[in-house]
Amino acid sequence: MLYEQLFERNYGVFTEAEQARLRNGRVAIVGCGGIGAVTAIALARSGLGRFSLHEFDTYTPSNMNRQITCFVDTMGMNKAVVVRDTILRINPEAHIDICTQAVTPQEIDQVVLDGDVILPAADDWALSMTMLSRAKQLGKPAIMAYPVGALGRVSTFLPTSPYACECVAIPPHLSYTEMKAFMDDPNNRKILQYYQTAGGWRQEWFEQWCDGLLPHPQICTIVWITGALAAIEIIKLISGKWRPVVAPRYWHVTPEGARIAKFSFARRWLARQRWGAAMIPFLAQRPWLVRLFTRAIS
Q1: Residue 128 and residue 120 in contact, taking contact as beta carbons nearer than 8 Å
Q2: Can you give the CATH number for the domain in which 26 is found?
Q3: Helices 34-45/220-239 angle, 10° precision
Q4: Which domain range does residue 163 map to?
Q5: Is the peptide bond before 248 cis (omega within 30 degrees of 0)?
Q6: Cα–Cα–Cα angle for 24, 232, 183, nearest 5°?
Q7: Which strand (E) or helix (H) includes residue 261?
Q8: pLDDT confidence bin for 109, thresholds 50/70/90
C-alpha cells in the first residue's frame, strides 16, 4: 500500500511539502515505555518516516496500566522491539534503528545528534535531564515530556531556550553522576510537594517515594495525553506547520484542565544560586515552609 494512501487524510491539513518533511524526518527517542511509546506510535500514524529507538527494558505487569504497547502477549519482550514492530504494522516503509542496551552518559552526544529532534523519556530522569542539557549545547531541539501522577508537562527546548534543569529548579551544569545524586536525595524529593497538590499523589505514596521505596505513580490518561502533546511538538518542529510551545512556556495538563503555563524566572534564578541547594535540607524538614516556598517560585 502506498504511503499517500496510508496518510491520505493528513493531506487535508498538511501540504505535500509539510507531509514530505514528516516522511523524511527523524526522531531519536530514549525510553520506549509510557511517554516514548505513545509518542512514537502517534508520530508513526502521522507519517513520520524515520526513528531511532533506545530501550533496554522489557515489559512487566506493572507497565500494563499505561504503556500503549504492553499486552499480556508482549510480557518479557524488549520495549523498543515491540514499538518497532508496531510502527512497521502502521507504515511498512518506516526506517527504524533500535538499540536494546541502556544509553550510557558517554553515548549521550551520539544519541542527541542522531535525530532531527530528541525526546529523552528514560526512567532514569537524571539521564533525560542530562540529554536535554547536551541537546541545547549541541544545537538540537529537544522535548521535555513527563507525567507526575495526574499532572503532565510538555515543553520544547531550543538552543536559545533556558536549560531544562533550571526550569524545574535543578542546579545547571551538573554532571550525570551529580544530577542523579541530587535527584535521589530524599531531602530534595521532599520539597516536590506539587507532586501531591497538582499531581494528586497520596501522602503515604509520596513519603515512601521520597525514601526510594516506591516508584512514580502514573495513570494511563495523563501519560497518553502527555505523549500525544510531545508528538505534536515534534510534528511542529519537523513539518514547520505550527509554532511550538517553547520553554519557558509549557503545556500544563491535569484532569481539571489544560493550559499553556510558564516556568517562572524565580525557578531559573534560584537554580543558579549556590546557596539554593544548600537550603533544601532546611526546607525539607518544614513542610509548611516548603508550601510557602513552592508558591513563591511558581
Answers
A1: yes
A2: 3.40.50.720
A3: 50
A4: 3-170+216-264
A5: yes
A6: 110
A7: strand 257-262
A8: very high
Q: In this structure, which amino acid lies at residue 294?
A: T
| Cα 247 versus chain centre, distance | 14
DSSP secondary structure letters along 71-97: -GGGTTSBHHHHHHHHHHHH-TT-EEE
The pLDDT tens digits for 231-250 are: 999 999 999 999 999 999 99
Structural contact between residues 266 and 173, judged by C-beta atoms closer than 8 angstroms: no
- Looking only at the bridges linking them, the beta strands covering 117-120 and 26-30 are parallel
- List the single range of 181-185, 232-236, 241-245, 258-262 with lowest mean pLDDT: 181-185
Inside any domain, residue 291: no
The answer to the question of residue 239 being in a domain is yes
Q: In what order do the strands lie in the sheet with 249-254?
A: 95-99, 50-54, 26-30, 117-120, 142-148, 151-157, 249-254, 257-262
Task: Indicate the number of domains in the chain.
Answer: 1
State the DSSP code for 246. B
User: Measured over all CA atoms, what is the biggest interatomic distance in the chain, rounded to whole angstroms?
Assistant: 63
| Stretch among 55-64, 181-190, 235-244 having the lowest mean pLDDT | 181-190
Domain contains 282: no
DSSP letter (8 states) at residue 218: B
Contact 90, 113 (CB under 8 A): no
Quick count: other Cβ atoms within 10 Å of Cβ 128?
A: 25
Helices 79-90 and 34-45, packing angle to 10 deg: 20
Look at residue 298 and tell me if it is in a domain: no
This prediction has a pTM of 0.93
pLDDT value, residue 20: 97
Q: Could you give the C-alpha distances from 43 to 23, 51, 109, 197, 212, in angstroms and in order?
A: 10, 9, 23, 32, 34
